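Contributing new records

If you add data, match the layout below exactly. Sequence lines come first and carry their own label; structure lines follow with theirs. Keep one chain per record. Anything else will be rejected by the validation script.
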Amino acid sequence: MKTTNRLDAALEKLYTAFHNNTLNPECCNHCAVGNICNNTDSWKHLSDDHGSLRLNYVGLVHENLGRRFHGYSPSELLKIEASFLKGCGYTLPLNHRNAKPENPTSKETLFNGLCAAVALLCSLDGIKNVMDFYPLFQKDTEPLELEVMA
């Protein structure tokens, strides 16, 4: 499957963070977009709320100037983070009043968030979801013929 450079880089960073236990949905440096942006939190200045899809003034300026951060526009970064947080079980935007998962850094929670983020990353590049294993488990169209031993 042919992928884009930005997708390859993002997937590698997310994979590494997941397996090194450095992925944390509540930390702007170590969330999905924080990892894509090399563990910096500069992306958080594009919106007023963590998990929001609404660009603030700074985000709109960057978006209108056509700026890209690690290959992604400001609005794409917000979509990626929102997908990750929703996949983890958060109600958005992230704040003390909204629901959050019982154990935000459990492998299961993080994996669910990653699945959602990866699905969005792939759709942004028009690529089939690289984590979609469903076709591997589909039955063949032709039934398997078994010899019956008498």
